[in-house]
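Project standup — Tuesday

K.O.: blocked on the structure for the chain from last sprint. Re-posting the sequence here as requested.
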Amino acid sequence: MNLHPSVDLDLGRGFGLGVAGISYWRQSKGDGIYDVPGQLVRRGDASDRRYIGTQGELLLSWQPTPTVSYAVSYSIFRPGGFVRDSGPARDIHMLGLEAMFRV
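H.V.: unblocked you, prediction finished:
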């Protein structure tokens, strides 16, 4: 489960700025954490806590033409009680770069 408030601003000339804060919880105490392909990362029975953690994200985008866009994002994830109880728990910093061409 997550709570995901965000604000997107149109800066003009094709530029946009987005800011989001996301908090994650396990729906039940038996839920684990899985990666994108679906492999188990943290077992559900490692802790009774539900709170997984909080992520902050900043996104700058630019769309110079209707068919081309670029984006750069920075995120930080801070682990919550479940992650701290179930194994290594350090902040994770992520940088993303994206280029898109639409036909």
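K.O.: great, moving the ticket to review. Residues 81-85 form the longest helix (5 residues). The helical segments are 81-85.
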